Amino acid sequence: xxxxxxxxxxxxxxxxxxxxxxxxxxxxxxxxxxxxxxxxxxxxxxxxxxxxxxxxxxxxxxxxxxxxxxxxxxxxxxxxxxxxxxxxxxxxxxxxxxxxxxxxxxxxxxxxxxxxxxxxxxxxxxxxxxxxxxxxxxxxxxxxxxxxxxxxxxxxxxxxxxxxxxxxxxxxxxxxxxxxxxxxxxxxxxxxxxxxxxxxxxxxxxxxxxxxxxxxxxxxxxxxxxxxxxxxxx
Length: 234
Ligand SMILES: C[S@@+](CC[C@H](N)C(=O)[O-])C[C@H]1O[C@@H](n2cnc3c(N)ncnc32)[C@H](O)[C@@H]1O
Ligand SMILES: Nc1nc2[nH]cc(C(=O)O)c2c(=O)[nH]1
Ligand code: SF4
Ligand SMILES: [Mg+2]
Known about the structure:
With 234 residues, the protein is an alpha/beta fold.
């Protein structure tokens, strides 16, 4: 059994959401059932890049994670692409025997039994600006599959319509801790990120939430983007 792997990198810090700042090794899976207009990881989505994806056994993935982490357990974040189109159960089982913890980032379109083996499931349903239209029944199936794993919701907000949509999404799932992050409009890895633009977008989101007296979500930047821009592998 092999997994389609785009890249394995770290240790770095988790730059987004509930685990922000946490030392992390990332395992990026190839392939996605969505095509978000502003996807910052097209190299893991578009089949144009698939010749760069490596078939790897769970043992080989874990060996690379251990090499990068110096053999000391930390949090492994499985992202993509949508990792839920593959079976990460054997990798998680193997990593657990060595003391590693696991988180997964997915949009909530495909449920997997192995979600229950995670420590943290980050569900990131896509707002209107993405051009995708989430299926809330499937989203609920993902939550059900998570079982004992901690599930949280992270929503990217580009504009007022996304913000209103995020409020509705929270109303559907008030039980999920909610994290909002401003959208990054500049995702070309070869172009620098304009920090003034990033700061202005973050300020707008904070002021929108507080101005609305909405005290539920945590508003966070993409910390890695502030530090490294759109560079890959960080
Ligand atoms: C690249 S995705 C991979 C995992 C999964 N496909 C998903 O979308 O949740 C990881 C996270 O990056 C977020 N993201 C992608 N492009 C972004 C952008 N341009 N600005 C801000 N966040 C973005 C996604 O919403 C998701 O929360
Ligand atoms: N540092 C860092 N934090 C991240 N959080 C989510 C990421 C992703 O691309 O899934 C990501 C990433 O690529 N790097
Ligand atoms: S679901 Fe995630 S990986 Fe897939 S296109 Fe959207 S942001 Fe990119
Ligand atoms: Mg990213």
